[in-house]
């Protein structure tokens, strides 16, 4: 039987890659996207709404009865209390609007901040690595925990199964998404190449030296599909990463080589992109005009603040994938290729030079 996926946040990096994957499976899946903007993917039925407005969500979903819900959206707020109110509310709005419709499975995408804490207390705790799903929640308030609890409560009421997916830094094709490090580093490298600035790793000594990992958005899409259709994966939380542990001091020259520039020696201290790229908007606009690129302002294609947060951590961060492996998900993704594939697609779509 054809399954009907409702992807909440279908235009983000997680949601759009999931939509592409489900559509590639042919007649197995019908795909609807719940988002403020229209999905550019042919085959996705967009249901536009304001996810923070319960009435708007209810109206958008009034005539839709999905079998599977994939919640991939979040909205950054100024404080964690507001993150909890807004992001917890978005999950609740969707699950309330679909109550009684026979939902089979709900998958929630959160992330490694489950182990590291929210932005206000980010990486102040030092949990043991590799992060494992059975580790206790931190004492800090965290909107991920509230989102999980909304799913758990609705599952108890409605009888659907659930899964929680905790990717690390997401790498993949997306435009206009705050979490896309691939696009951000591509813009940084392009501006360094244009101006002759040194292509310096902008993060902390700990991130330069320590073991870490990332998550390819295409791998996350396959993991979401697997967990939502595999009985033994029901009612579990999962880490989901590429399966390759690396150090940035190893990867950084490989990213530089892709763009035909040299990787500068690491200076031993952070040089945040928000500072070094503060004057980059007009430089980027010049590149866009000269190269005939898509008319995207710098703020739409690069999220320097988010990459600074990831690369500026002062604790080691990598994840254990044992639970997924034991239950049958064995996929692996080469990390260098995660970046270069994303760069290739950004170039093909004339997003970067």
Characterization of the model:
This protein has 353 residues and is an alpha/beta fold. It folds into two domains: 3-169 and 214-240, NAD(P)-binding Rossmann-like Domain (Rossmann fold), CATH 3.40.50.720; 177-212 and 245-315 and 334-348, no CATH class. It is 42% helix and 12% strand. It is built from 15 helices and nine strands. The strands form two sheets. The protein has a seven-stranded parallel sheet with strand order 3-2-1-4-5-6-9, with helices on both faces. Strands 7-8 form a two-stranded parallel sheet. The relative contact order is 0.14. The mean pLDDT is 95.
Low-confidence stretches: none
Structural class: alpha/beta
How would you sum up the major sheet?
Answer: 7 strands, parallel
Order of helices and strands: EHEEHEHEHHEEHHEHEHHHHHHH
The CATH topology of the largest domain turns out to be Rossmann fold
Q: How far apart are the first and last residues' alpha carbons, in Å?
A: 44 Å
* CATH-defined superfamily of the largest domain: NAD(P)-binding Rossmann-like Domain
CATH architecture designation of the largest domain:
3-Layer(aba) Sandwich
Strand order of the largest sheet: 3-2-1-4-5-6-9
Q: What is the average of the pLDDT values?
A: 95
Number of domains: 2
Write down the CATH class of the largest domain.
Alpha Beta
């Amino acid at each position: 039987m054809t399954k009907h996926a409702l992807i909440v946040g279908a235009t983000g990096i997680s949601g759009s890659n999931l939509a592409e994957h489900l559509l590639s499976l042919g007649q197995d899946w019908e795909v609807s996207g719940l988002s403020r903007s229209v999905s550019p993917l042919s085959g996705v039925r967009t249901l536009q709404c304001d996810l923070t407005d319960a009435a708007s969500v209810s109206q958008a979903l009034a005539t839709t009865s999905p079998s599977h819900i994939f919640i991939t959206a979040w909205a950054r707020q100024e404080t964690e209390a507001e993150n909890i109110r807004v992001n917890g509310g978005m999950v609740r709005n969707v699950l309330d609007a679909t109550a009684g419709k026979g939902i089979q499975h709900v998958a929630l995408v959160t992330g490694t901040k489950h182990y590291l804490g929210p932005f206000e207390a980010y990486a102040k705790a030092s949990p043991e690595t590799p992060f494992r799903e059975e580790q206790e929640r931190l004492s800090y308030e965290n909107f991920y925990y509230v989102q999980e609890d909304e799913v758990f409560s609705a599952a108890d009421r409605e009888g659907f199964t659930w899964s929680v997916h905790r990717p690390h830094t997401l790498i993949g094709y997306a435009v206009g998404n705050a979490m896309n490090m691939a696009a951000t580093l591509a813009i940084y490298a392009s501006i360094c190449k244009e101006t002759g600035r040194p292509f310096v790793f902008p993060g902390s000594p700990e991130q330069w030296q320590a073991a870490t990992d990332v998550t390819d958005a295409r791998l996350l899409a396959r993991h979401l599909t697997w967990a939502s259709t595999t009985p033994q994966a029901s009612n579990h939380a999962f880490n989901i990463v590429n399966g390759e542990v690396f150090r940035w001091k190893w990867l950084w020259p490989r990213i530089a080589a892709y763009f035909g520039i040299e990787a500068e020696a690491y200076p031993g201290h952070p040089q945040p992109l928000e500072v070094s790229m503060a004057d980059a908007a007009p430089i980027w606009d010049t590149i866009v005009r000269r190269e005939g690129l898509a008319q995207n302002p710098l703020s739409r294609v690069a999220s320097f603040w988010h990459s600074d947060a990831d690369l500026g951590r002062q604790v080691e961060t990598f994840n254990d994938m044992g639970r997924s492996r034991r239950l049958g998900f064995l996929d692996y993704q080469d990390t260098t290729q995660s970046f270069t594939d994303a760069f290739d697609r950004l170039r093909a779509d004339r997003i970067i030079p």
